[in-house]
Each structure stands twice: as C-alpha cells, then as structure tokens.
Write a structure and sequence with these properties.
mainly beta; globular; 20 strands
Length: about 375
C-alpha cells in the first residue's frame, strides 16, 4: 500500500509541476462513534483524513480536449480501530470532441477510469475480522477496477438534449481464497444508458435516465431456492435501473438539488439473490459570501430481497439480513482561513449521522461523526 501512495503522490506532483492546473490537498481529524457500524456499539474512535486531488485539461486541435484528474484519499483510525482504515485511488482520463451533426451540436466523450480500493474486511455479523474455517480473510475488500466508457450527447436545442452512455468494466479482488473453499468475487460487467437532459435560462437543470446492466461473475455460483450452490452455474446478474436528478436555484444564494435512483436486480437462476434497491437524496447549498458556504444533505434508502426465505450471505461469511432501510444526514461549513487572508486556504467543519434498520436486528446500527479539516489549492 505504501508503494501505491508514493507512486500516486509522485504522479500528482509531477503533473502539477508541469502544468498550471489545480492541485488541492485536504487534511483533517475527526471522531466516529461507530467505525465498524456494529449494533449497540457505543465506543468511538478518533481518525485522520487525507485527500489529494489534481485535475486539469489540455486543449487539442479541431474542437477537442483532453481532461484528466487523480484523487488519493485515506482514513486512518486510532490503533484500537485500525481495522476500519481505508485507502482509495481514482485515476481518470477523458477525451472530449465537440462536433456538428447537421445544424445541431453534439459531444463525444471517451473516458478511461482506474480505481483501487484497500480496506480490511470486517464482518458486521461476526463483529470481528471476517474468517472462514478459522482462516483470516482480512484483505477481502482489496480490489482493482478498470473501466472504459463512451457517451454521445446530441443537443436538440439550447434547452433539451439526448445522450447514450455505455461502459465495460471489471473488478479484480486481490485475494480469492480458493485454498479455503471460498468462491472468487471477481466479475465483468457492461451497461447501456439512454438519458434525457433539460436546462433553462433560470438555472434549472434536470436529467432522467434508465439503464440495463449485465454482471458476470467468474467463479461465484448461482443458488437454488434453499440457498445451496448450483454446481456449474455461475452467477449472472441483470440490473434494470433508473435515475432522476434536479438542480435549481431557490434564491440568489440558495440552491437545491435532488436525486432519486434505484435498480431491480435479477439473477439467472431461482431468484434467491433477487432484490430491489431505491434511494432518495436531497441537498441544499447556501453561499453566505465568496468562499464561505453551508451545504446540507440528507438521503434514505431501502434494499429488499424479494424471497421471504432468502438469507443472503455477507460475501460468503455471514447473514446480511433480507431487508435493510437507512438514512443519512450531513452538514458542512466552509470558510477562508482568516489568519492568512487567502482564498486558497479554507477550513471545513462537517457533522453527520447515519442509522440503519435491518431485518436481522443484530445488524441494525447508528453512528455520529464529526470532522475538522483544512484545504489548500495550489
């Protein structure tokens, strides 16, 4: 992990040195009442956050440009909760081409992403590092994921536009544990998503989309109605998804945004793994003055396995509960760091809470967290 961080920092700093593009570093400290999201947990832990973001673009010939960004983030807890630590690396390169189709304008976007996630696999049901047959699988969540996406946006006029978005991606878990009898979680998937966009002169913008996604696991087996593996039948998932997002100014300083999304997942066997997921998120942004603002956001979700007899497993290690419902609220205040009187140095205060109700009562939890951080943009 240290090598990944060193190489990522070198890449980000090198790009920043050669181009006059934005580099932002944010560091902070906070407190989390329930780092492992355990039922009935009362003891909390201190943590340190670090985020490094770099973004830029290069103008090319014939109305095209190359955009790129790199993001490295991590959270480190005090020693008692160090198994809740995580690191994330996100890299993106995007080619944008502006063109004419008849009398109308269009955009073509080709995007390549790379994501690496490193975290300990802590089981809610076992209330400890997840194990199977006495063997630790603490690295289960470590994975790398490449993604290649293309989108064509066609503008009907200044207000309305249509687009088609598609991608192919995969996820490779670094540890598959075949030697202790566990199935690999690696998969490939592809998706198609038609989208309608609306934007008027008053600042109201909206987007509505539906999508179909196919996910194919390399080794994870389908289950029959009893939950037993169907030998030789690898899991195939069909996603039927939707989403609607709206952003609008309420006053000169106050904006509102809302996002509703969800999907219906169906397996290719007896439906033991079939479930529905729905989520609603609403946010407010209030610009007090330049570089001083308050943002608040709340969201609720529900995930429901369709079969009452279903006992979905927590990635092969424990019961996860048939029905999960939860809500999350968060508020952030940002302002210039007064002592140095610069717009590039800001301080941020974040407060948040989260609660989840699970049909398996021992997996229900609630938590509260607070974070103070400072960011600087070069």
């Amino acid at each position: 992990m240290n090598n990944i961080i060193k190489h990522s920092l070198s890449l980000v700093l090198c790009l920043s040195a050669n181009n006059s593009f934005a580099l932002e570093i944010k560091a902070g400290a906070g407190y989390d009442t329930n780092p492992f999201e355990l039922s009935g947990q009362n003891d909390g832990g201190l943590f340190t956050d670090l985020d490094i973001n770099h973004a830029g673009k290069l103008s090319l010939q014939k109305k095209s440009e190359l955009q790129y960004n790199a993001s490295l983030s991590g959270r480190l807890y005090e020693s008692e909760f160090e198994d809740a630590d995580y690191y994330k690396l996100d890299l993106r390169g995007r080619y944008v081409k502006r063109l004419k189709v008849g009398e109308r304008t269009a955009n073509f976007l080709l995007t390549a992403d790379w994501k690496s996630d490193r975290r300990t696999y802590f089981s809610q049901s076992q209330r400890a590092l997840a194990t199977s047959r006495g063997n630790s699988i603490s690295d289960r969540f470590d994975y790398d994921s490449p993604k290649l996406a293309a989108e064509f946006i066609y503008r009907l006029n200044k207000v309305h536009s249509l687009s088609m978005y598609s991608y192919v991606s995969s996820r490779n878990y670094l540890e598959d544990y075949e030697d202790i009898g566990l199935e690999a979680l690696d998969y490939y998937e592809y998706s198609f998503q038609p989208t309608y966009r609306y934007k008027n002169e008053n600042g109201l913008s909206a987007r509505a989309f539906v999508y179909y996604r196919k996910r194919m696991y390399e080794d994870l087996l389908e289950d029959d109605i009893t939950g037993a593996n169907i030998i030789g039948d690898k899991l195939r998932y069909d996603f039927y998804g939707y989403g609607v997002t709206v952003t609008s100014p309420l006053t000169e300083k106050l904006n509102i945004n809302a996002y509703a999304n969800g999907y219906f997942i169906r397996d290719d066997a007896a439906g033991f793994r079939d479930f529905d997921f729905h989520q609603l998120r609403i946010g407010l942004d209030y610009q007090i003055k330049e570089n001083q603002k308050i943002s608040a956001q709340g969201s609720c979700y529900i995930r429901d396995f369709l079969l009452d007899v279903a006992a979905p497993v927590e990635s092969e290690t424990g019961y996860a509960g048939r029905l999960r419902k939860g809500c999350k609220a968060e508020a952030v205040y940002s302002a210039p760091f007064i002592m140095l009187e610069t717009e590039k140095l800001l301080w941020h205060a974040k407060l948040g809470s989260e609660v989840e109700s699970n049909s398996a009562q021992n997996l229900s939890f609630d938590k509260f967290y607070a974070l103070i951080s400072i960011s600087f943009e070069f």
